Amino acid sequence: MRIYQSEDYKSMSRRAANIISAQVIYKPDCVLGLATGGTPVGTYKQLVDWYKEGDLSFAEVRSVNLDEYLGLSPHHEQSYRYFMQSNLFDHIDIKPENTHVLNGLAKDPQAECAAYNKLIQDLGGIDLQLLGMGHNGHIAFNEPGDDFGLETHLVTLTDRTIDANTRFFDSRDDVPRQALSMGIKNIMNARRILMVVSGEDKAEAVLKAFAGPVTKEVPASVLQLHPDVTLVADKAALSKLVEAGVPVCG
Ligand code: PGA
Fold this sequence. Notes:
Layout: E1 2-6, H1 9-26, E2 31-34, H2 41-52, E3 62-65, E4 67-69, H3 80-87, E5 99-100, H4 109-122, E6 128-131, E7 153-156, H5 159-165, E8 178-181, H6 184-188, E9 192-197, H7 203-211, E10 229-234, H8 235-243
Parallel strand pairs: 1-10, 2-3, 2-6, 3-5, 6-9, 9-10
Antiparallel strand pairs: 4-8, 7-8
Helix pairs in contact: 1-2, 7-8
The protein binds 2-phosphoglycolic acid.
């Protein structure tokens, strides 16, 4: 595991974008596992800037996203498909048919999940998976207590996750209660993992995930068992880990 400490959110985003960019340059037709949420926004912005400057092309890249709210159409402003279009896909040269996000309107969610697992397999697996982390240590919508052996599945959001995501909706009642999400098994099967975390409010989760025991109660702690994980975080998010004496790179 490599842990990189960045001064602030902007430099964290730049460093994460640099790792993704290196992956794309090294293997132009790579499969990127992509994430939504507040944290990766700066990373995507940096990638778009480099694309516009002509330093990077996504023409051959394939992508799979981690999750999607059940019941939201791809055109809903809070759907993760919409997020990906507006933060990344609409601004780069990735082919629309090469971008994959779970269908929140799927009539048969179980069949949608099974088809997504097959899709990931057919693409040859994920080369680099980008992840954020929730305050309770969740990754994608894998919440505390969820089985590490799960692949893509239908999840019921915890109250804490609904609370955290309310900021993106008009009211708490508008936040969907269920989602489709890759499971820990899909994530752990990625060849490389890049996690981005920012802010003091995540410091406790970072400490538990990377210096605590591997436990289902902190889903991100499973990453300690993955052979190629890079954590890129700002000083605030790493504060408790550093206090605990875990070495980080500057
Ligand atoms: P955030 O979400 O980046 O919006 O904090 C991360 C997550 O819940 O995975």
